[in-house]
Specification:
With 184 residues, the protein is of the alpha/beta class. 29% of the residues lie in helices and 21% in strands. A 6-stranded parallel β-sheet has the order 2-1-3-4-5-10. A two-stranded antiparallel ribbon has the order 6-7. Strand 6 and strand 7 form a beta hairpin. The N terminus and C terminus are likely disordered.
Length: 184
C-alpha cells in the first residue's frame, strides 16, 4: 500500500506576482514572460482591482505596477500598500512610460524596489523579478545560492545579491532605474 501524496508546501509553490497595467497587451506580455519562469501571475487593469487582488491573494510576493492607471493611479496604489501593515514591505517594481523625476522621487519615498521605464525588455524584467524574489529557475532558494553569489538567509537585503549577478548578466542593485528599448 502506498502512502498518500502529501500536499505541496508553500515553499514548493511558484512565487505569486501581481501585474497591474491598464494596457491588456502589456499585461499579457509580462504574464507570459514571468510564467516562463517559476511564477504564478495575477493581472489587474486598475488600481482598485489591484487592491482587491491583494486582499484575495495573501501569498503575493511582488507587484509589477504601472503608474498611469485609470482612476486610482499607481502612486495611489503604492501609497495604499505602504499604509497597510500587510503590504507595507511588499516588493514593488514600477514599470511605466512616465519617467518623470517627480514620480521617480515619489516612488523612492514610498519604498519601491525597482523603477523601470517602457519600452522595456521582458527578459530584463524577468531577471529583476527573479533577483528581487530570490528565485531561480525551478523555484525559490531559501537560504541558498544563486548563480554567482550566496543569498544570506534567503533574503536579498536592499535588492542586491552579494557578489552575484542575475541570469541575464545585469548586476542586481536596489532602486535601479532601467530603460531598455530591447523588447524581446
Amino acid at each position: 500500500m502506498t502512502a498518500p501524496a502529501s500536499a505541496p508546501s508553500a515553499s514548493d509553490q511558484p512565487t505569486h506576482i501581481l501585474v497591474v497595467d491598464d494596457e491588456p497587451h502589456i499585461g499579457r506580455i509580462i504574464k507570459t514572460r514571468l510564467e516562463q519562469g517559476p511564477f504564478t501571475v495575477t493581472v489587474a487593469e486598475t488600481g482598485a482591482q489591484a487592491l482587491v487582488a491583494l486582499e484575495r491573494e495573501p501569498h503575493i510576493k511582488l507587484v509589477v505596477l504601472d503608474l498611469m492607471l485609470p482612476g486610482m493611479s499607481g502612486i495611489d496604489v503604492l501609497s495604499a500598500m505602504r499604509a497597510d501593515d500587510r503590504w507595507k514591505d511588499l516588493l514593488c517594481v514600477v514599470l511605466t512610460a512616465a519617467g518623470h523625476d517627480v514620480q521617480t522621487r515619489q516612488t523612492e519615498t514610498l519604498g519601491v524596489s525597482e523603477f523601470m521605464t517602457k519600452p522595456f525588455s521582458p527578459r530584463r524584467l524577468l531577471a529583476r523579478v527573479m533577483a528581487l524574489t530570490c528565485t531561480v529557475p525551478g523555484g525559490t532558494v531559501p537560504g541558498g545560492t544563486v548563480p554567482g553569489g550566496t543569498v544570506p538567509g534567503g533574503t536579498v537585503p536592499g535588492g542586491t545579491v552579494p557578489g552575484g549577478t542575475v541570469p541575464d548578466g545585469a548586476p542586481p542593485s536596489p532602486m535601479q532605474a532601467v530603460s531598455s528599448p530591447d523588447t524581446e
